[in-house]
Amino acid sequence: MTQYDSLSSTYDVFDTLPYRQMEWENVYRAVSPLLRPGMKVLELACGTGCYTSRFFDWGVTDMTAVDISRPMLAEAAIRAHHHIEAGNLRLVAADGTETQSFAPDHSSCYFYLAFGAWFLNYAENKAQLRAMFRNMAQNLRPGAPFIAIVPHPTDDVGARGEMYNKPPFNRMFPRNKYTEPLESGDGYGLRVLLDNNGVDFMTWHMKREVYEEAARLGGFQGRLEWRREFLLDDVWKRRFDLTSDEWQIREANPHFGILIAWK
Fold this sequence. Notes:
The chain is α/β, with parallel strands linked by helices. It is built from nine helices and ten strands. It has helices at residues 18-31, 50-57, 70-79, 81-85, 126-139, 157-164, 208-217, 234-240, 244-252; strands at 40-44, 62-67, 89-93, 113-117, 145-151, 175-181, 187-193, 200-206, 224-228, 256-262. A seven-stranded mixed beta sheet has the order 3-2-1-4-5-10-9, sandwiched between helices. Residues 3-11 have low confidence and may be disordered.
């Protein structure tokens, strides 16, 4: 059983958090210029289908969404049932670290774009991270992009961990609690808390240079592009319940980054 099997019915609390709505806008601005009519899209770590549904809202009509947790996929099937019934969506239970084809005909180089929201951060080491990139490269057409949301890219993860243990970060959700550095020196363990009721899960935050090295070793020889998280207007400051000074701290220490890797 994955750590998400028991969270499938409560995980959507994530989508009610103010930061999540800013994340959606960040992702839309990064992804929308890359979308084309009729393109085949692959999504990894689709969870309960939050981004799956949004990709259809953004014009995608042929999508394969993958997750390791069957209970999560069951929730996604409920959310996107009309797309499944229309034949536009396939849900696949699989481990994204294991090299395999996700194409309906099991071919390679099938998809025109791959997307993973909080997928790469489940790699516990560089070898697993490299395997994730290799899996995406096998499934993508030459020159196609893989767009991933990861913790803010930095090579000083330890300093970030110290910052996130202080106000305002230690009273905001999702709350990031950095545990301990990896023995390899590649990153830190990162426990994510979604609320005060014990909804949490374990991830890992690798250094920026580790993401980039793993992408190259995994088959992405094209451009690597990082997009920094941008915050929306002051209305969101009030939704986060932050002072002006705290909002500036939040802006200087982004929650996430978006990596676009081209095969």
